[in-house]
């Protein structure tokens, strides 16, 4: 016997007829045929409950019965959920309308009384064979549907998970925030910017960086479980992108608690991580936003991101001033693009005074911007914008050209001495242009101004971006007679190792060391050391920010060469500078 035959003969068959002898006859006949699971009912009212409890594979159903006819039983069975069992109607006579109604209600076949046993056996076998195929197809369909449903859930889960850490990704975070927003839950968001991860990936490799990220997840999970569970009982940590993570706290904490929680997040970065016997460090910045059910999720995250402080290891809460500042920077960045064409940029000059002779021997050209919308904009604001956008390249070229034109004019009119030099600031981006030296040589050659009259002031951080390229460019310029000065010396990467190799001739002592020179022994020692070191290397020194006679006396006693500052003059327009050069600064010194 085949497996299919075994399944057919094991079918659950229910026989429903109001005459007991008909039921017994069919049961006896079917048992002889080999069917083993047979049940008979003579009360049609019991069919619905029987089928509800255990659904048979086949029902042999008499049409004409007291209480409920076969058609009425069919109508009842159609109320059950799921597919009907196979149903064969038993009848001595069936009119066409009843036959059509039976077929409409789901009857599969008809057997006419008195029964032909061979016909009954074959029809039952055919129906059960067909039902077996239908059941197999249904099971396969249900199995496939379950598999698809499972895979869909897996894909949905994966699409909401960051694969390396297993943490919720941006989509999942926004989903959670949207759920909280719809439920009108209070929310506090901590936007965590990781610092140092990219550099570790570049230096140590991505495999090490991946291990480091997993170690960070473990540490932050412990912090959430132990450190802040009392502050925020319901929290969710997720990945916004590779170096920016988000912590959601489902409540608006009071200001002190928000600060405590932020500090605990930062504390998680204080201890080093040990990966493959290496001691690695990460740092972080944290921006905070919070909401009382009003703002959309993405807006909340944006506000927390805007609140990120500039320095590592710090946190800051969002406020309206931050947004206003961002809009101002964005507007200024746009306005700066056409500032040259609109004639909004101009130069002012701060004189440099020789301490020994009290003579103005040079000046520093300083860039200024006055806009119709933003008014007079501080260089502290617009220079970083110009550097970030690349506008500093065209602006820097314009500054050099303007300085050369002014120098040529002053020299031609004998308004300055032949040794008068004008200093211009060179941005890191300018210095990193491969053709900077040649372009500058061409500009100076075209102007007719001797190269020694133009001093280039570069920052320590600018040199460090590409020391090899910076050295190559500056050495070439020095060969042609240019003066090169290090601006704000002592505030960046000061090192004797590079001082002895750099082709520079001037060290500018930052105003931070001059401000309290008359009263700070520490500043006196530092300033004196810089001046002695410069003298040893053959550099001249310029102290900026000189405002008091006591400061001037100290610098003079230390052997500083030049000074500039408000004691003599603020940055001046051209005509004011020329007047001061003509009158001298003796009267200014005597005032103090």
UniProtKB/TrEMBL annotation:
Presence of keyword Cell membrane: no
GO annotation (BP), single: phosphorelay signal transduction system
Keyword field contains Chloroplast: no
Superkingdom in the source lineage: Bacteria
GGDEF domain: residues covered: 185-324
Pfam families: EAL, GGDEF, Response_reg
Name of the protein: GGDEF domain-containing response regulator
Organism for this UniProt entry: Nitrincola tapanii
């Amino acid at each position: 016997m085949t497996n299919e035959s075994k399944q057919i003969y094991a079918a659950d068959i229910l026989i429903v007829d109001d005459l007991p002898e008909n039921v017994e006859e069919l049961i006896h006949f079917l048992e002889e045929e080999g069917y083993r699971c047979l049940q008979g009912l003579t009360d049609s009212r019991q069919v619905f409950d029987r089928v509800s409890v255990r659904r048979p594979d086949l029902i042999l159903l008499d049409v004409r019965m007291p209480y409920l006819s076969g058609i009425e039983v069919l109508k009842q069975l159609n109320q059950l959920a799921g597919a009907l069992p196979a149903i064969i109607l038993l009848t001595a006579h069936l009119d066409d309308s009843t036959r059509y109604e039976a077929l409409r209600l789901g009857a599969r076949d008809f057997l006419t009384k008195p029964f032909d046993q061979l016909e009954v056996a074959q029809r039952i076998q055919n129906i059960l064979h067909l039902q077996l195929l239908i059941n197999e197809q249904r099971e396969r369909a249900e199995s496939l549907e379950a598999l698809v449903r499972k895979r869909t859930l897996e894909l949905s889960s994966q699409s909401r998970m960051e694969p390396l850490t297993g943490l919720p990704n941006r989509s999942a975070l926004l989903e959670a925030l949207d759920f909280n927003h719809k439920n009108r839950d209070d929310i506090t968001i901590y936007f965590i910017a990781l610092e140092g991860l990219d550099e570790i990936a570049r230096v140590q490799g991505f495999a090490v960086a991946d291990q480091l990220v997993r170690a960070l997840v473990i540490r932050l999970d412990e912090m959430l479980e132990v450190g802040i569970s009392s502050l925020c009982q319901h929290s969710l940590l997720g990945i916004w992108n590779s170096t920016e993570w988000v912590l959601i706290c489902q409540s608006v904490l009071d200001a002190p608690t928000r600060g405590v929680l932020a500090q605990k997040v930062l504390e998680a970065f204080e201890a080093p991580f040990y990966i493959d016997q290496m001691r690695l460090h990460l740092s972080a910045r944290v921006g905070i936003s919070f909401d009382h059910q009003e703002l959309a999720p993405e807006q909340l995250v944006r506000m927390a991101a805007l609140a990120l402080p500039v320095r590592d290891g710090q946190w800051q809460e969002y406020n309206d001033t931050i947004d206003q500042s961002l809009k101002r920077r964005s507007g200024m960045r746009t306005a700066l693009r056409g500032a040259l064409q609109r004639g909004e940029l101009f130069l002012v000059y701060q004189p440099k005074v020789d301490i020994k002779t009290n003579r103005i021997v040079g000046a520093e050209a300083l860039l200024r911007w006055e806009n119709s919308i933003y008014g007079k904009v501080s260089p502290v604001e617009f220079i970083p914008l110009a550097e970030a956008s690349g506008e500093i390249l065209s602006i820097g070229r314009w500054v050099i050209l303007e300085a050369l034109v002014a120098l040529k004019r002053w020299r031609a009119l004998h308004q300055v001495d032949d040794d008068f030099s004008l200093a211009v600031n060179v941005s890191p981006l300018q210095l990193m242009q491969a053709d900077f030296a040649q372009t500058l040589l061409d500009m100076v050659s075209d102007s007719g101004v001797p190269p020694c009259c133009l001093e280039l002031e570069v920052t320590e951080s600018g040199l460090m971006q590409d020391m090899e390229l910076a050295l190559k460019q500056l050495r070439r310029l020095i060969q042609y007679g240019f003066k090169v000065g290090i601006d704000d010396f002592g505030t960046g990467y000061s090192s004797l190792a590079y001082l002895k190799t750099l082709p520079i001739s001037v060290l500018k002592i930052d105003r931070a060391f001059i401000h309290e020179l008359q009263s700070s022994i520490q500043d006196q020692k530092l300033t004196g050391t810089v001046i002695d070191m410069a003298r040893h290397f053959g550099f001249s020194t310029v102290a900026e920010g000189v405002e008091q006679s006591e400061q001037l006396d100290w610098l003079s006693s230390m052997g500083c060469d030049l000074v500039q500052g408000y004691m003599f003059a603020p940055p001046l327009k051209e005509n004011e500078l020329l007047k001061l050069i003509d009158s001298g600064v003796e009267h200014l010194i005597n005032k103090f």
